[in-house]
């Protein structure tokens, strides 16, 4: 057994921090060597992804600094937010693929460095008098932060054994998602103390943090050799119907989380006439709770099954949407905030449960195909890890486009009716469809297969 990526000074280290021998399903290997390395990579991945999310959502807080002197109306602000969402979503697939091309640690270092580009540009252009076109271009640059999630999740998925993937992916994603709430909280403190005329303070805080994320990746993370050059897994995952079904469900969970995170402050300003400070004092609460509870969604799914958690969670998201619709009609800010926070909490739980489903679904498929393909235990598990890692990248990309759709829906809704209610009716219909799809595909008439490792019966309904 050789591990080629121990901390500096450990035996077996070779250039580039590559791990040649990685067997997380081997209990002896995991307890003696794997757990320590995996957890170290997890926490530095969380930090880098956290900063990536913060930069991706930068314009959701910068628009709060953009007063009348910027000459950008509500529709223009929603567009600025939507552009960054679109670019970040589009980058998720190539970012996920990059892990297989250059290694997880190496790509974390590169992707963190790319965050410096929009951050430094904004230092020079974030002031009244800058053209709207310039802000659109910079918003597109900010989108690079959106790709970090997919590569981070693909990378961490390879480090942990099956029984711990739900919790590990939940922690990784939840810690990253917290970047949304944290940057909104930092913006609130700046607006409350320095006023809306000081957006550059925000950039002065985050540029050094980006450098720290790069240093953490460079000195404390590792690459796994077996993951490299496995680009064929992406093609195989793309041909599998299950990849696209879970991607559709992820639109409903993560798409909602990131879309609402970008839009919440603007909706409060336009629906209830809140000032930037009043909006900022509330907007961080939803993303904060949604991020903190995401690991709970993964943990709960590890115990009772990701399918069951996902199914009933979509029902709860429908309830939250109905509360927002009723509150908008009644003009109740308190009830509206309650409904919106419920949407954040349930989207966070759903993020964890859907991502737990992905590796479990492909392990179930491996169990069902083990006899026809002639796989032994290790071959089946390796196939499941390969394809689930690629499927995570695809679903991360597709799911993030839900955030774009939410912001475009709000933009059209406010343009047409001066209210977000029509958009909420559309969201409600979508959650109903997600509930039905989850039930029909994974709960009803779910075929069971024998797990080659445990000998027990497994089915989609149990994953």
Give structural notes.
- The chain has one domain: MFS general substrate transporter like domains (Growth Hormone, Chain: A), CATH 1.20.1250.
- Strand 3 (448-450) and strand 4 form a beta hairpin.
- The chain is built from 17 helices and 4 strands.
- Helix 14 runs antiparallel to helix 15 (333-373).
- The longest helix has 41 residues, at 333-373.
- The model is unreliable at 1-14 (pLDDT under 50).
- It has a two-stranded parallel sheet with strand order 1-2. It has a two-stranded antiparallel ribbon with strand order 3-4.
- Helices cover 79% and strands 2% of the residues.
- With 463 residues, the protein is mostly helical.
- It is globular.
Shape: globular
* Total tally of structural domains: 1
CATH domain class name: Mainly Alpha
Number of strands: 4
Tell me the radius of gyration: 22 Å
Low-confidence stretches: 1-14
Average pLDDT works out at 86
Strand and helix layout:
Elements: E1 18-19, H1 27-56, H2 58-65, H3 74-102, H4 104-114, H5 116-125, H6 132-142, H7 144-157, H8 162-194, H9 200-220, E2 223-224, H10 232-239, H11 241-272, H12 276-283, H13 285-304, H14 306-330, H15 333-373, H16 377-417, H17 421-443, E3 448-450, E4 457-459
Parallel strand pairs: 1-2
Antiparallel strand pairs: 3-4
Helix pairs in contact: 1-4, 1-7, 1-8, 1-9, 2-8, 2-11, 3-4, 3-6, 3-7, 3-11, 3-16, 4-7, 4-9, 5-6, 5-9, 7-8, 7-16, 8-12, 8-13, 8-15, 10-16, 11-12, 11-15, 11-16, 11-17, 13-14, 13-15, 14-15, 14-17, 15-16, 16-17
């Amino acid at each position: 057994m050789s591990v080629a990526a121990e901390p500096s000074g450990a035996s077996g280290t070779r250039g580039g921090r590559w791990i040649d021998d990685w067997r997380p399903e081997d209990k002896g290997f995991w307890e003696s060597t794997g757990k320590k390395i995996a957890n170290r990579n997890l926490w530095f991945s969380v930090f880098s992804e956290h900063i990536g999310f913060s930069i991706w959502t930068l314009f959701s807080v910068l628009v709060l600094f953009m007063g009348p002197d910027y000459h950008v109306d509500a529709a223009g602000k929603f567009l600025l937010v939507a552009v960054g969402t679109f670019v970040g979503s589009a980058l998720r697939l190539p970012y996920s693929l990059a892990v297989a091309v250059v290694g997880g640690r190496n790509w974390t270092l590169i992707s963190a460095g790319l965050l410096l580009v929009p951050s430094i540009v904004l230092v020079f252009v974030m002031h009244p008098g800058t053209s709207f076109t310039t802000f659109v271009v910079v918003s597109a640059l900010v989108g690079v932060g959106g790709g970090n999630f997919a590569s981070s999740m693909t990378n961490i998925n390879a480090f942990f054994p099956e029984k711990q993937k739900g919790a590990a992916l939940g922690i990784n994603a939840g810690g990253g998602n917290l970047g949304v709430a944290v940057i909104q909280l930092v913006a609130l403190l700046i607006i409350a103390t320095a006023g809306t005329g000081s957006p550059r303070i925000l950039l002065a805080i985050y540029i050094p943090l980006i450098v720290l994320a790069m240093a953490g990746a460079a000195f404390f993370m590792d690459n796994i050799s077996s993951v490299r050059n496995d680009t064929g897994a992406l093609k195989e995952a793309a041909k599998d119907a299950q990849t696209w079904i879970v991607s559709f469900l992820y639109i409903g969970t993560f798409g909602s989380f990131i879309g609402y995170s970008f839009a919440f402050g603007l909706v409060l300003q336009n629906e209830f006439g809140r000032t930037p400070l009043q909006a900022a004092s509330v907007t961080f609460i939803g993303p904060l709770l949604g991020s903190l509870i995401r690991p709970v969604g993964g943990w709960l799914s590890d115990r009772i099954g990701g399918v069951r958690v996902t199914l009933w969670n979509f029902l709860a998201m429908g309830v939250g949407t109905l509360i927002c619709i009723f509150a908008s009609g009644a003009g109740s800010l308190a009830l509206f905030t309650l409904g919106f926070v419920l949407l954040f909490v349930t989207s966070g739980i759903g993020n964890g449960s859907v991502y737990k489903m992905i590796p479990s679904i492909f392990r179930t498929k491996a169990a069902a195909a083990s006899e026809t393909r002639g796989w032994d235990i290790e071959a089946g598990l390796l196939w499941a890890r390969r394809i689930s890692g690629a499927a995570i990248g695809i679903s991360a990309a597709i799911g993030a486009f839900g955030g774009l759709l939410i912001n475009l829906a709000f933009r059209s809704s406010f343009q047409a009716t001066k209210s977000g209610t029509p958009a909420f009716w559309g969201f409600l219909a979508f959650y109903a469809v997600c509930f039905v799809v989850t039930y029909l595909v994974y709960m009803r008439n779910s075929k069971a297969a024998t797990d080659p490792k445990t000998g027990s019966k497994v089915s989609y309904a149990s994953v």
